[in-house]
Specification:
The protein has 505 residues and is of the alpha+beta class. It is 21% helix and 27% strand. It has 12 helices and 28 strands. The chain has helices at 11-14, 48-55, 83-97, 190-201, 264-277, 311-320, 342-350, 422-428, 440-445, 469-475, 482-486, 489-496, and strands spanning 58-59, 62-63, 74-75, 113-114, 120-122, 127-129, 134-135, 147-154, 159-162, 173-175, 181-187, 204-207, 213-222, 225-234, 254-260, 283-287, 300-304, 326-329, 334-335, 358-364, 370-371, 378-386, 389-396, 400-401, 408-411, 418-421, 452-462, 499-504. Strands 15, 16, 17, 18, 19, 20, 21, 24, 25, 26 and 27 form an 11-stranded mixed sheet that branches. β15, α5 (264-277) and β16 form a beta-alpha-beta unit. The chain is elongated.
């Protein structure tokens, strides 16, 4: 309904787009052809020209905004007015997330200590064996018998260390059991080292500081060697399981979700089309029209919002009411057809060979002509910047083929017609700041969280309401929104995502 330009274009305009090859496919016919850059051939690495273009984005390893010799308007720079506040927020964000990052563990060569640098995970206030810690007896084979000291300590002091081995020889002694620091003395005799390794095999880390996601570092010292063993204290989330029907009734697995504003003729047409092909499937509608009208249907759940509350606020409200494992997002001016085969989406979600969270479809017109354009599937690229932020590029194209499904490509962004897994989509959400215009913004929020594909085997009609003057007034921001009053759309995106510029190609 209120998506970005390019995703809300009407089908009549599609045929006039310059530079796009349009393949007309009527009925159920399908041919393997090249359609605007999408060719069903194996994925190829970037060409030298592509690599050269990418080099233009950076200067000395830092992305720049002034020399982007590529199509599309550049949005930026970020306003100095907001920079101090963003710097403060970014500093807090970095401090909160640094302990969650997977550490880089360097296992040094020629060390007498074998150890597991990572992979040791424990529940908060729980216990776990510190596996893999072994002293190499060969490292002491050519020295005279003497005493050595091994020190193990919790550097972050998030836990205690304890050994439970009963096989402690005469020449092995320890102190500090069940404390933050464990000191062990031993000789270099084979029997002493054997006893030492038996003791280390029983070494246990007890979490003593409650936090759901922190990392402790165990420092192990022997002679001049110093190694680090990482322990991840993690409260594992509980699974969110859906009690799906054992039958193949798709209406029990999928909910249709939409947002409407001043377009009751469109939304009623959409509801009729859903009921024609999927009778009984729940339809959730968020409605912020000025004078709400009841949308009839036993399977319709209409939620009335404050007048002109906004595009993404409505998407959030509608999504919050979904009880099924999957949902289909559609704009209110879409129409289901015999080619809106939701089962094709489900097939891919259920396939254990592929792991997808969101799958987008394509459009057709009332005559059954299908439109497959590169404007409907895009990638998002983030280039590293500096203290002023990073650079973001939205480009047409795809990341790779889905080998199991030649009709699908892995992408970062799809159209406003998609099916998604409910739980992960609720976690990403829709930022209610975007009251009038927004689409790419949701996929930016899902960057690194959502596995997205675009598949050309599910189609829907987009029949725009051209004569709705009131809707058009709000659609393009004619009425001011919170963003336009306080930030400006562009500056809000730069602030929120720590960017100094972005290009929407």
């Amino acid at each position: 309904m209120e998506s970005v330009v390019g995703f809300a274009v009407i089908i009549a305009v599609l045929t006039s787009l310059i530079g796009h090859e349009i393949v007309a496919l009527t009925g159920n016919d399908w041919v393997d052809v090249r359609v605007d850059g999408w060719k069903q051939t194996p994925y190829r690495p970037p060409s030298e020209n592509t690599k050269l273009t990418h080099r233009l984005y950076t200067e000395g390893g830092v992305c720049t905004c002034s020399d982007l010799h590529v199509p599309g308007a550049i949005h930026g720079p970020f306003s100095d007015k907001f920079k101090p506040r963003r710097d403060h927020e970014m500093e807090k964000y970095s401090a909160e997330t640094i302990t969650e990052e997977e550490p880089i563990v360097s296992c040094r060569m020629l060390s007498p200590i074998s150890y597991a640098g990572g992979g040791i995970t424990v529940e908060p206030l729980g216990s776990v064996k510190v596996v893999g810690l072994i002293i190499d007896k060969e490292a002491f084979s050519e020295t005279k018998e003497q005493q050595y000291k091994l020190n193990i300590r919790s550097t972050m002091e998030f836990g205690d260390l304890a050994v439970y081995s009963r096989d402690v020889g005469e020449n092995v002694h320890f102190e500090g059991n069940n404390t933050k620091t464990l000191n062990i003395s031993f000789t270099n005799s084979p029997s002493s080292i054997h006893s030492l390794n038996a003791m280390l095999a029983s070494l246990v880390y007890h979490s003593t500081f409650y936090d759901i996601n922190i990392r402790d570092i165990l420092e192990v010292k022997l002679l001049d060697f110093n190694v680090l063993v990482h322990v991840h204290v993690l409260r594992r989330p509980r699974p969110k399981l859906y009690n799906l029907s054992l039958t193949d009734d798709i209406t029990q697995k999928v909910t249709v979700v939409t947002k409407t504003f001043e377009r009751y003729e469109c939304i009623e047409r959409l509801v009729d089309s859903v009921n024609k092909y999927y009778p009984g499937m729940t339809i959730v509608i968020a409605d912020d029209s000025e004078t709400p009208q009841q949308i009839l249907g036993s399977n319709v759940k209409q939620f009335i919002m404050p007048y002109k509350e906004g595009w993404f606020a409505g998407r959030n409200l509608a999504l919050s009411q979904v009880k099924t494992k999957y949902f289909v997002w559609v704009d209110d001016d879409f129409i289901f057809t015999e080619n809106t085969k939701l089962e094709n989406f489900i097939e891919k979600f259920k396939d254990s060979r592929v792991s997808l969270d969101l799958i987008g479809g394509f459009f057709e017109d009332v005559n059954g002509t299908k439109y497959i354009l590169s404007v409907f599937f895009k990638n998002i690229e983030i280039n590293a910047g500096d203290e002023d932020g990073d650079c973001m590029l939205r480009n047409r194209g795809f990341q790779r083929n889905v080998e199991e499904y030649p009709e699908c490509m892995i992408v970062d962004l799809v159209t406003n017609f998609f099916m998604a897994k409910t739980q992960i989509s609720k976690e990403v959400g829709f930022d209610p700041e975007f009251e009038r215009v927004g689409h790419t913004e949701h996929f930016i929020d899902g960057f690194g969280k959502l596995r997205v594909a675009s598949c050309k085997d599910v189609f829907i009609i987009h029949k725009s309401d051209k004569n709705n003057i009131k809707y058009k007034k709000f659609r393009r921001g004619g009425e001011s929104s919170h963003i336009s009053r306080y930030y400006g759309h562009e500056q809000y995106i730069l602030f929120k995502n720590n960017l100094k510029c972005y290009r929407l190609g």
